[in-house]
Design a protein that fits this description.
The chain is an alpha+beta fold. The protein has seven helices and 13 strands. Strands 8, 9, 10, 11, 12 and 13 form a six-stranded antiparallel beta sheet that branches. Helix 6 packs across helix 7.
C-alpha cells in the first residue's frame, strides 16, 4: 500500500512575503535611496543657483539705472554751471580779475554808411591808483592808534613831548591818562593807585619794559612805593579831561605806521599852540584845526607792530 505524501498548500500571503524577500535580495535598496538623495540635492542646488543668478541680474540692472541717473544729473549740473559761467563772462564779470590788454567789440557809426565792427584794445587801467587807499580809508584803519595818546594841556612834560624825548616820566604820564578815574582811590585827601593798573596801561602803549618810578601828572606828584606796589599822591588826583586836540592830516603805511597831525589846545573858546604857548588870534570854532596849520604844531607819531598790536615808539614835532 502506497504512502501518502504530506503536502500542504501554501497561502497567498506567504507567497507575497516570499516573493518580496526574493526581490529585496535581487535589488539594492540602499543604493537606490542614495541615488535619489543625490539627485534631489543636485536639483535643489541647481534651483538655488538659478535664483541667485536671477537676483544678481536684478541688482545689477537697478545699479545700472542708478548710475545712469546720477550721470545724467551730473551732466545737467555741468551744463548749468557752464551756461552760468558763459553768461558771467559775456557780461564782463571776470574782467576785473584779469590784467593786461583786453579786446571788445565796438559799434562804429558814420553818416550814410552801414554799421561795422572793429576790434580795439582796452587801455590797461592804472590799478595802483584805483586801489590806493584814501586818507579817510587809512583813518578808519589806523586813526584809532592815536586815541590812547592823551596829553593834558597842563602837562608837566609838554617840552619833552614836543621835542620827541620819550622819557620814562612822560610815558608814565601818558599811561596814567588811560586809567579810569574809578581806579583811583581817594581817602582823607590822599590818592592811591595800584601799580598793576598803571603797568597795564603802560604796556598797552609802549613796547619798552615798564619801570615803576615817581612822576608828576598835571602838577600833582605821584610817589612810587615799591613796598606797597602803589602810587600815592598827597592831594586828590583827577584824570584830565581837557586835552590837546589832534587832527590827522597824513598817514604813511610801511614797516611802521607814521601818523601826522595838526595839534592845538582849546580853552575858554581860545585856541593855543602848546608847543609855543601862542594864542591863535581870530580863532573860529566852526573851522577845523588844519585851517590854522601854519600857526599850530605838526606832530608825527610812529607806531611799530608788536605781535598783534601797535606800540608808540617815536614822536617828532615840526
Amino acid at each position: 500500500m502506497a504512502k501518502k505524501t504530506n503536502t500542504k498548500k501554501q497561502e497567498p500571503k506567504e507567497i507575497m512575503v516570499s516573493e518580496n524577500k526574493k526581490v529585496e535580495e535581487t535589488i539594492d535598496v540602499e543604493s537606490i535611496k542614495t541615488e535619489l538623495n543625490d539627485y534631489m540635492k543636485g536639483q535643489i542646488d541647481y534651483y538655488i543657483k538659478q535664483e541667485i543668478e536671477k537676483t544678481n541680474k536684478r541688482i545689477i540692472k537697478v545699479k545700472n539705472r542708478q548710475i545712469f541717473s546720477r550721470n545724467i544729473i551730473i551732466l545737467l549740473l555741468l551744463a548749468a554751471i557752464g551756461y552760468l559761467g558763459f553768461r558771467l563772462y559775456e557780461n564782463g564779470y571776470f574782467n576785473k580779475y584779469f590784467k593786461g590788454e583786453q579786446k571788445e567789440t565796438i559799434i562804429v557809426t558814420k553818416e550814410n554808411s552801414p554799421q561795422k565792427t572793429e576790434e580795439q584794445p582796452n587801455e590797461t587801467p592804472n590799478t595802483s591808483e584805483e586801489q590806493k587807499p584814501t586818507l579817510e580809508d587809512l583813518k578808519k584803519e589806523y586813526g584809532t592808534l592815536l586815541n590812547p595818546i592823551i596829553l593834558s594841556g597842563n602837562s608837566n612834560y609838554l617840552e619833552e613831548y614836543y621835542k620827541g624825548d620819550l622819557t620814562e616820566e612822560l610815558k608814565l604820564s601818558l599811561a596814567l591818562a588811560n586809567v579810569n578815574q574809578k581806579d583811583v582811590e581817594i581817602e582823607e585827601e590822599m590818592s592811591f593807585l595800584e601799580e598793576e593798573t598803571l603797568k597795564e596801561a603802560y604796556e598797552s602803549l609802549f613796547d619798552t619794559k615798564y619801570e615803576g618810578k615817581s612822576f608828576i601828572y598835571n602838577a600833582e606828584a605821584l610817589k612810587y612805593s615799591a613796598a606797597r606796589k602803589m602810587y600815592i599822591a598827597s592831594g586828590e588826583l583827577k584824570i584830565a579831561s581837557n586835552t590837546i586836540q589832534k587832527e590827522i592830516v597824513d598817514i604813511q603805511v610801511g614797516e611802521n605806521i607814521v601818523i601826522t597831525t595838526i595839534e592845538g589846545y582849546i580853552s575858554e573858546g581860545k585856541l593855543y599852540n602848546k608847543k609855543t604857548n601862542e594864542n591863535i588870534e581870530n580863532y573860529d570854532a566852526k573851522k577845523e584845526l588844519h585851517d590854522y596849520k601854519d600857526k599850530l604844531a605838526s606832530v608825527k607819531y610812529t607806531f611799530h607792530k608788536n605781535n598783534d598790536s601797535y606800540k608808540l615808539i617815536k614822536i617828532e614835532s615840526n
